[in-house]
Q: What sequence folds into this?
């Protein structure tokens, strides 16, 4: 569990440093962002997925990316050292972070 949290923190930090529209203060901020994202994905995301099931089906699952971006914007509002310029950057952040996380988990997890 701690290993996964560390890998997700590295993913957040790396993604924020790759994208111009996302700013992160330091690695500790990335640790807090990863923790809050995990909690939101456990408690909030399932509710949003159920509520948005019809539109998710209509868009062949692509609406899940919109939900992810909205949750990233929520984390942006709650964590002081993490800033995302707009919804488009949040969408891109979610996509890039997914790829980086996938690579890290395949290498080390």
A:
């Amino acid at each position: 569990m701690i290993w996964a949290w560390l890998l997700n923190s590295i993913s957040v930090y790396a993604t924020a440093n790759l994208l111009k529209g996302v700013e992160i203060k330091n690695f500790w901020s990335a640790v807090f962002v990863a923790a809050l994202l995990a909690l939101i994905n456990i408690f909030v995301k399932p509710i949003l997925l159920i509520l948005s099931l019809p539109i998710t089906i209509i868009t062949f699952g692509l609406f899940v990316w919109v939900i992810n971006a909205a949750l990233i914007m929520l984390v942006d509002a709650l964590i002081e050292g993490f800033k995302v310029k707009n919804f488009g950057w949040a969408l891109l952040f979610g996509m890039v972070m997914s790829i980086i996380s996938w690579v890290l988990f395949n290498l080390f997890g």
Observations:
- The mean pLDDT is 97.
